[in-house]
Every structure is written in C-alpha cells, then in structure tokens.
Specification:
The complex is a heterodimer of chains A (297) and B (325). With 297 residues, chain A is mostly helical. Chain A contains twelve helices and no strands. Classes of the chains: A mainly alpha (297), B mainly alpha (325). Chains A and B meet through helix 2, helix 3, helix 4, helix 5 and helix 6 of A and helix 2, helix 4, helix 5, helix 6 and helix 8 of B. Chain A: It is a multi-pass membrane protein.
Chain lengths: 297, 325
C-alpha cells in the first residue's frame, strides 16, 4: 500500500502537490496519532517489564524458592508454598478442563456443526470466554466452599477449570475446522467409525493447534486472582495434602503482600510478580509459535 | 456389491472369519460424551446465574428495587445499596472506552496501513502480549508506577488550574491528590482493553479486500481519507462489536481496579476522587462478609452479571467469531 500512496511512501510532499493542505494535515495527524498510539502500547509493556525486573530482582533471596511465606512483619522466608499451591491448582484445573474442552470443541466442529444447539453453545461459550472471572469465583464459592464449609484447593482448581474450558473449546473447534474434509472422508472410506476417524485422523492432524489451546488456557488461568479470592484463599504456611483449608497461591499472595505495610512482604510480592509474568509471557509466546506452525501446515 | 459378496465368500472358503462392522457402542459413547461436554458449557453458565441469584435473594427481598437507587453501605445498620458501585463501574468502564478506543483504532490503523512489513509481526506481537499480562500486574503497575506520576503531573496541576471554576472545578478537582481514583482506574482499564479491541479491529481491517483500498488510493485519496471513507464504513459494525467486547471486559475487571480505584464507598462528583466498582467491592469485602452484607454483595454480582452479559451478547452478535483473546 505504500507504493500506491506517494505521500506517505516517500515521507515528503512532492514538489508540486495537488493535494489541498487541509487534506494533507488530516492525513499527517492520522499518521502521527496512530504511530504514537502504537508507541504508547510498546512503552507501557516495556515499563511494566522494567518495573517487574527492577523491583522483582531485589526480592530474589536464596530462600525465595525453598522457604514458605513468612508471618507478618518477620524477615526472611520465600514463596515456595505459593508457587507449589499455584502449580497444583493450575495443574488440576487444566486436567479437569482439557477433556471437557476437547470433547465440547469436538462436538461443535464434528457433530453439531451448524445445528441450532451447536450455534447456541458456540455463542454462549464465546460469552463465557469474556465473562468476569470474579463471578466464577462467586459461583464456585456457592457451589463448593459453602457446602464443604472450608476454602479448598479443589474449589480453586474448579474455578480455574471453568475459566480454562471456553478457551480450549474455542481453539479446539477452530483447529478441527482447519482439517480438510477429504481426510475425514478417506478415513470413513476405509470403514473407520466416526469416533475413530475423529480420534485417529482429525485430532492428530490438529494436535499442535489443540495443544496451543491448552497452553493458552494455562497462560490465562496462571495469573487469575479474582476467582481464587473466595475459593482457595491463601495462607502463610504449607498447605494440607488433601488441599482442604486455604491453599497459598501466587496471585492472591501477590495481592495481599503488595498491599501490605511490611517491606519484606512487598519485596516477596514483587519477586512473585516477576516470576508469574515471565512464565505467562513465555507460555503465550510459545503458544503463538505453535499455532503459526499449525496454520502453515 | 458383487465384489463384496465375492470377497466375503472367499473369506469363508479360506477359513478366515469375515470382518464385522466395529461395535456401535463405542462410537455412540464418544458422541454422547462430546455432546455432554458441550452441554456442560450451558450448564455452567446457567449455574453461575442460578447460584448468584440464590445467594442474592435475601438482599433482593429485603431491599427490593430500592437496592438499585440507594447509596447506603452501612454494615452496622445493615443498610445496603448498589448505586455508588453501579455508577463507579459504569464511569470507570466508559472512561476506559473514551481513552482506550482511539488508541486501539490508532494501533489497528498503524499495523494495517502504515507499519513497514518487517516490523509488523514484532509490533503486533508486542501489543498482543499486553493482553497476556495478568490483571494483578496491571494493578501493581497502576498503583506503584502510574499513580504517583499521575498525581504529580496531572492531578495536582489540573486541580490547581480548575479550582473554583464551575462544573469543571467539581469534576476535575482532587481533594487529596493521591493518584488513585476513578479516572486512574479508567486509564488502567483502557490499557487493558487496548490489545483486545486493537487486535479484533486489525483482523477486520485485514479482511477488507485490498482492491477497495487500492482503488481509493488510486484516485488520489490520502491515508486518512482511505481510513475514513473506505475502511471504517466497511468494518464499522465489527469495530462497534470489538468496542462492546472491550466494554464487557472493562465492566467485569476486578484486580487491577481494586488496586487503583481507592475503594471508597461514597459517591463523589470528581473523577479524581476514589470510588469503587461492583467487582472491586466484592473483591474487598466478600471474605469478611456474612448475612445480609454477603447477600448484598451477591446481589451486586447479579447486577454485574446482567450488565456484562447484556453487553457481551450484543458484542458477540456484532463480531461473529472474533479470534480467541
């Protein structure tokens, strides 16, 4: 498009311009404004990363990854319990969400297709994709925390799973739709039943894309705080092996420690924030590369 | 058909059992499972609505419609009203749109029209990475980096400037220029919705046939004219959908807002003053609440559910099949 627009392409006005100056000014304003908008986005991301690195590195002590969170006002300690709690809950959440999301996405792409029920489910799944996560926290609180009478890692994991499912459904469906129809027909022509065609052919052809969906879901739930506030809560020690009672986790720990008046807690919050952001950005970048590969295939 | 009969006969003769059709049970089971999983999505959505209404019921019966218009929030006397939180939510989200939408459109235009080819992918990726940063990190950035700068370079000078003026002197006056407040929340929300709105808009602009664009340039249009008269009319419905999607996110965003809005329970006429949103109030008070307060928080959640789902449904109708965030 640059070639078709001599004014922007060369960056200077031709010697004899037939363009009225008001038009040129409007054009220049647009170009400057949109370039500035883009720069602003880049600067904000840079500023966030810079802040995390400057403040986060100070919090890296030898005991950071080995000791549990310290009590209020005390020195030392680490965030090992929060890291482990987050890993456990995220893992359980993904383990719950993957089969459900995969099967639901398969239904939409392979069985439901354009039927009315599939359209409704697809639509509401998209709505659920952007639903406020705090409402999911309230739902799981009513569903699990209140009947069980205690905060638990299970409730936290279920809340995370509910956030992960729509992401997996969506990417699975999109990726299965990219698989060409003749491949399914070839499988059916060999006498394979539909479920075998799906499992052995369509899923395999779309595997990289499906994995991307799971990674994206992982990146999404790893930093979620709001749904954990009323489900897993937090505590300042190692959690029970049965995951009952408050299970410490990075996001809620960061939330509580960052707003606390204790310097030691604040510095642990920064270290946790750096750790979690780097992990999530790495997951997102990985997902993008995998999905690119799938689309090119 | 004859070939099949022959081969079956051949198999019989040679003593090999003919291949039977695979059992239908496994096939049906698989289909049933996938159908059930899909229905589970509906069930979860219904469950969210049901559980929140169930939890909110005592507050709704106690306060009735007065809940919507009351601005009381008194734990001692058990009087609760939603008005300040509703206004805070809507104000912060609208501010986010006012600030965020022009930036998003600018980024989308830059990426599709102006960016040199080699830079397009890295720049697009940087903008999209903004969407993966967890909201709590935006909250920390907003509170510890942005708010002090905002207080010093915007709130203090602007307050000094407008002090005593009618209307502006109320809306833009910070009693305590601490940097946190409704406008700060709006700005942070704006940054958070930019990647979503920009990336959907960019996809929509990319889908417009190049021929349309090129013919406009061909008759001598400037970039501004191409954007204004060719691209925007073509993509307007989808862009409005993308904006609504951003609005849906801004309305329900919790953690970032909780950090920077100041969490005040009263209404203030100034956008520099602290306020609260539905989501931030739930996040702040839910764990310590019981009885009618808990139920009122649930009722706030119910209102948030209704508002955001209404917005999101309109958005999704306008943007059919936008990409996964």
């Amino acid at each position: 498009m640059d070639a078709t627009n001599p004014i922007t392409a060369t960056g200077r006005t031709p010697a004899v311009s037939r363009v009225r100056s008001s038009r040129r000014v409007a054009d220049r304003i647009l170009i400057v404004a949109s370039t500035l908008a883009t720069l602003l986005g880049i600067v904000v991301l840079g500023s966030i990363l810079l802040m995390l690195i400057v403040e986060g590195v100070k919090g890296f002590t030898p005991t950071l990854l080995t000791a549990p969170t310290p009590g209020p006002g005390s020195e030392g300690g680490g965030i090992a319990n929060a890291i482990l709690g987050s890993l456990v809950m995220t893992f359980i959440g993904i383990v719950i969400a993957t089969p459900i999301g995969l099967m639901a996405g398969t239904f939409l792409a392979e069985y439901g297709k354009t039927s009315k029920i599939a359209d409704v489910i697809r639509f509401l799944n998209d709505v659920l994709l952007s639903a406020p996560s705090i409402l999911i926290g309230l739902f799981v609180y009513t569903l699990m925390v209140r009947p069980m009478g205690t905060y638990s890692g299970w409730a936290g994991a279920v809340a995370l799973a509910i956030i992960a499912v729509p992401v997996i459904v969506r990417t699975t469906e999109d990726m299965l739709r990219l698989v060409p129809g003749p491949m399914r027909e070839a499988g059916a022509a060999l006498g394979a039943p539909r479920s075998l065609v799906i499992r052995a052919i369509t899923w395999r052809a779309a595997s990289a894309g499906i994995v991307t969906g799971i990674i994206l879901a992982l990146a999404r739930i790893a930093g979620e705080t709001a749904p954990l506030l009323f489900t897993a809560l937090n505590n300042n020690s190692w959690f029970n092996a049965n995951l009952l009672g408050g299970v410490p986790n990075l996001p809620v720990m960061i939330y509580q420690f960052a707003l606390s008046p204790y310097p030691n807690w604040q510095s642990l919050a920064w270290a946790g924030a750096l750790l979690i952001t780097v992990t999530i950005l790495a997951l997102s970048v990985t997902a993008r590369f995998v999905i690119k590969e799938q689309r090119q295939r | 058909m004859t070939a099949l009969t022959q081969s079956v006969a051949l198999a019989r003769e040679s003593g090999v059992a003919p291949r039977t059709a695979p059992s239908k049970t496994g096939d049906r089971l698989f289909q049933g499972l996938s159908y059930a999983s899909a229905l589970l999505v509906l069930l979860v959505l219904a469950g969210i609505l049901g559980s929140i209404i169930y939890g909110a019921w005592p507050a709704f019966t106690e306060f009735g419609f007065g809940f919507l218009t009351s601005s009381a929030w008194n734990i001692g006397t058990e009087q609760f009203g939603a008005l300040p939180a509703i206004i805070g939510t809507v104000a912060a989200a609208l501010l986010a749109l006012v600030i965020g939408v022009p930036i998003s459109l600018g980024i989308a235009i830059y990426l599709t029209q102006l960016c040199p080819g080699w830079a397009r992918k890295p720049v697009a990726m940087t903008i999209e990475l903004l969407a993966s940063v967890p909201s709590i990190i935006y909250g920390m950035w907003g509170l510890f980096v942005f708010a002090p700068l905002f207080a010093r370079f915007v709130q203090v000078p602007v307050s000094n400037l407008v002090e005593g003026m009618p209307i502006v002197g109320t809306i833009l006056y910070a009693r305590i220029p601490s940097g946190v407040g409704v406008l700060t929340a709006g700005i942070i929300l704006a940054i958070m919705i930019v990647p979503f709105v920009a990336s959907i808009t960019r996809d929509m602009l990319d889908q417009i046939p190049t021929v349309l664009r090129e013919s406009a340039y061909g008759i001598g249009c400037t970039t501004w004219e191409v954007v204004r008269h060719v691209l925007v009319p073509q993509a307007s419905v989808s862009i409005i959908g993308a904006i609504m999607l951003g609005l849906g996110r801004a309305l329900g965003e919790t953690m970032a807002v909780t950090f920077v809005i100041g969490n005040a329970n009263r209404l203030s006429a100034s956008i520099f003053d602290p306020g609260s949103t539905i989501a931030s109030r739930i996040a702040n008070e839910f764990n310590e609440a019981d009885g009618l307060q808990l139920s009122s928080l649930m009722a706030l959640g119910c209102l948030l559910f209704i508002i955001t789902f209404f917005v999101l449904i309109i958005a999704r109708l306008l943007v059919r099949r936008a990409k996964v965030a």
